[in-house]
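@channel sequence for tomorrow's demo:
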Amino acid sequence: MDRVILGGGSHFHDEFKGLRHGRHYWYLIRYLVVFLFARLLGRDVWMLGMGIGPLHRRTTRWLLTCVVRLSHWITVRDSASYQELQAINCRRKPVLSFDLAALLFDKEPPSLSRGNGNLLGISIVSLSGNQGVAFWETFFSSMEAIFREQESLVVHIFVFRGGDRECDVPLSEELCRRLSAHDPNRVLLVDYGSDFSDLSRHIYNCRAFISTRFHASLLAYLCGCRLLFIPYQRKVMDLASEIGLSHRNILSFSDEISGAKITEVIRKLVLERAWPRPTRTVVEAVSRAKVTQALISEKWKK
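structure tokens (generated this afternoon):
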């Protein structure tokens, strides 16, 4: 073993609450222990494509500071993460890159037509406890209204997370069931699965995409869909800022939002000709991700 690499993700943040955040500390402590042993053995430590923040607790900041000081090279996926690292005055200067998933889109987009021009993709996030229950009930009712109103609309519901905790399957199945009650031929539940090319083709065929999870939002952007982000955590807003989304592309994840507002926004997403596009092109995003790729190629040889 010549080096230890921690790949990108939202590892260091304070978004979780209660016992969930306590469990998260154990993950961070394990990273620290592994990095410490690697340095004691004289191995390189790299952090690549990191998403950082928000950082509200001193303990999280301390753990991040320790891990960063043990690292030789750090790249981050967005400007907000870069600023978080700058704020803790770490000795290692981070390199601004982009989420490494963009490297999967280095080649030309799939040579496919958009298929059904009325295809809407949706990803739903399930949170612990009762978080988001009222929002999703309002959202589901609004989707039913749009689905009845727009008889040519086809909806694909994407499940990005299964498992035992914060699993998106039950909510996704509930939306599928409610829409299928009106017309089962216009609804499909799409599992993340193990075949990325199949998943990306499904997303690419969507004209528009409503996303909550970070990587659902990222893939919808990379596939060139019309975008509507529902930021359940700051990392989704950080992505929106990084790719230059308009405020019209953001729907607040709030229990206070009205069904009328949700219905209005979704209707515009589906029907408007001039829906706002990101200002950062996919080509530019891929180029930024290649900064990390170039760093790996340069340092790996040494």
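heads up for whoever presents: The chain has a mean pLDDT of 90.
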